[in-house]
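User:
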Amino acid sequence: MLRREAWLLGVRGVIAIVFGILAVIWPGVTTIALALLFGIFAIATGIEQIVHAVRPSAGATNPVTGFADGTGPRVARVVAGLFGLAAGVLAIVWPGITAVVLAVLVGAWAIVTGVADLWLATRQHGGWTLALVGAISVVAGLFVVIRPAQGAVAIAWAIGLYAIVSGALLLFAAYQLTHQGRGRLSAAH
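Assistant: Predicted structure:
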């Protein structure tokens, strides 16, 4: 189970880094290209969040939600995932939106995802990397929402740098989780 969670965090980290590098390398891209890049990124991370939330568990299942009992973090992941899917689909279906609307969309998505990550970090032992990702996400989202008219280049750089840092931290969290799982296996033998 830890290996699958580490793998999903790793995939999310790689996607974030690739998206971030593309946004930094081509900061002068048109709003349409930026909207499409963001849409793909948001959909991919939204799917990852939902898959992570609904994966089978060994615990008792709540008949109303379908989730294991006591799974508040799962609900947070589903909400963040659905918001990511909605934001991504909106960006892809309506790519001609202005830089200001895109900035507000990206900023709101970063804030919601960051708050979900912060909340999840309080539920996990050793979740300081996820808390750091959440805090960076909230700060970046607030920056973009407060100053959406700073232009597409500044927004692309802010989004790109945020995605690279977050992706690196997610890869580190996946690495930690992998070694945590190996430590448990060694202790069991």
